[in-house]
């Protein structure tokens, strides 16, 4: 086995690990975004959202 074959396998392995990390981080970001959407609104955010709804319906 020469250096070129080892280099190719290391590059493939590194590429797969990089793709796995990108997928992992993306899934964590999506999960955190869903959890944040389930949090209750603060009083000022709730008031702002109600005002927006009333403006759109009028």
Describe it:
With 58 residues, the chain is an all-alpha fold. The chain has one domain. 86% of the residues lie in helices and 0% in strands. The protein is built from two helices and no strands. It has helices spanning 3-37, 43-57. The protein is rod-shaped and about 75 Å long. The mean pLDDT is 87.
Shape: rod-shaped
Indicate the low-confidence ranges by residue numbers.
Answer: none
Helix content: over 70%
The mean pLDDT is 87
Secondary structure: elements and pairs:
Layout: H1 3-37, H2 43-57
Brief summary:
The protein is mostly helical.
Keyphrases for this structure?
mainly alpha; 58 residues
